[in-house]
Amino acid sequence: MKSLRDLELKGKRVLMRVDFNVPTDKENKILDDAKITAALPTIKYVLEQGGRLILMSHLGRPGGKKNGKYSLDKVAAHLSSLLNLPVTKVDDCIGEEVQQAVGKLQDGQVLLLENVRYYEGEEKNDPEFSRQLAALGEVFINDAFGTAHRAHSSTTGIADYLPAYAGFLMENEVAMLRKALGAGERPRMAILGGAKVADKLGLIHNLLNKMDIILIGGGMANTFLKAQGKNVGKSLCEDNLLDEARKIIQAAQDKKVRLVFPQDVVIADAISADAEAEIVDVDGVGSDKMILDIGPKTIEAYQKLIEEARTIVWNGPLGVFEYEQFAQGTRAITQALAASNATTVIGGGDTSVIVHELGLEEGITHISTGGGATLEFLEGVELPGVAVCEH
Ligand code: AMP
Predict the structure, then answer these.
(1) Which atom of ligand 1 is nearest to the CA of 292?
(2) Is residue 283's pLDDT more than 90?
């Protein structure tokens, strides 16, 4: 990837796409600033090098219209406190007012544009909108890994008009996910959970070509168990994918990938806080029960396998971790990963949240900041926001 380290930044107008799409509450307060802090190394570097930094991001889904609810004002205030520097905020992302503010920027100063999704052109990757954004800068840096799977004006379109470089967050994400997928030491392991096989088909097929061993848990395990003739009762199960599941099991055998399923499971009558949990072997699931977590024997077996792996990537909870009775499997696997000496990569979304909730970040090599972007990367899809930094 083209790195911004190769760039002379002093006095340059640096237009940088960041992913400041932070979660907010009903009062519009920022609930979690991880996406902002993740971009700080690149922001600080550009400012220290004397660049004139113009930041842009989306926030939520304003649908191509101006809507104060999705304004980046609150982000500007928070960024200013994190940097301990003034952050100028403009109420638009293109046009005369913005051009004037950009013209006043001095070396080492930072300006934040308003939500780029206030314009329909953004998500349509409209060349005219891209051109107007690009006119603000002399060089384009993409540090928004979380939005890299979208070919929008501010993530890719601008690169038709300005030289594009990867920021540090983008660089690091791509390097770590590539390591997890193929460049890392063997044995390489993937741990897959989450609700459905259907959502992870692309992922499973790509991982079958990259991994030595794949551990399965979560709702998706049920479809595989049923495909192997087990009774899964009322569990979440995709009957339309039973053949596909058998094909995946066969493909794993052909490719000599160890595909490992739960031996025992935690079951209950319902998904609720007061549901009574019971542990049974996978052959002992009653017809009126639901499988909601992996059991203790499975946890122990998975822990041992994790100890033997040298590179591990994990996506998706192993049970309905939102309820205490069904959170044990996910928790134990997180702890095993944190204790492992392997290169450990957490593949975004729910799985990252769990690691943060348990406070086990320190033990993990890399926690991806992307949700959909991370998943698509692990599926082997070339992300447009990454591709523009490479050509
Ligand atoms: P995903 O977004 O595909 O990673 O799925 C995450 C969701 O899967 C979480 O909300 C979990 O509650 C859910 N999940 C995990 N295990 C199970 C299970 N055994 N049955 C039903 N849902 C599950």
Answers:
(1) 19
(2) yes
Residue nearest to atom 13 of ligand 1 (CA): 195
Contacts with 14 (C-beta within 8 Å, 6 or more apart), sequence order: 46, 51, 52, 53, 54, 137, 138, 139, 141
347 Cβ inside 6 Å of ligand 1: no
CB atoms within 10 A of CB 105: 18
Which residue type occupies 333?
A: I
CA of 372 to the centre of ligand 1 (A): 16
CA distances from 104 to 2, 49, 157, 339 (A): 29, 18, 26, 51
Helix, strand, coil % over all residues of the chain, rounded to 5: 45, 15, 40
pTM (predicted TM-score): 0.92
Show Cβ contacts of residue 254 under 8 Å, excluding neighbours closer than 6 positions.
none
C-alpha distances (whole Å) from 76 to each of 40, 141, 342 are 13, 19, 38
Q: Is 37 helix (H, G, I), strand (E, B) or coil?
A: helix
Q: Is 157 in the pocket of ligand 1 (CB under 6 A)?
A: no
CA 334 to chain centre: 17
Q: Does residue 391 carry a pLDDT above 80?
A: no
Kindly indicate the confidence band of residue 196, based on its pLDDT and cuts at 50, 70 and 90: very high
* CB of 48 shorter than 6 A to ligand 1: no
The residue whose CA is least distant from atom 17 of ligand 1 is 219
User: What pLDDT score does 155 carry?
Assistant: 98
Q: Could you write out the DSSP letters of every residue in 332-348?
A: HHHHHHHH-SSEEEE-S
- 367 pairs with which residues across the strands? 346
User: Both ends of the chain: CA-CA distance in Å?
Assistant: 8
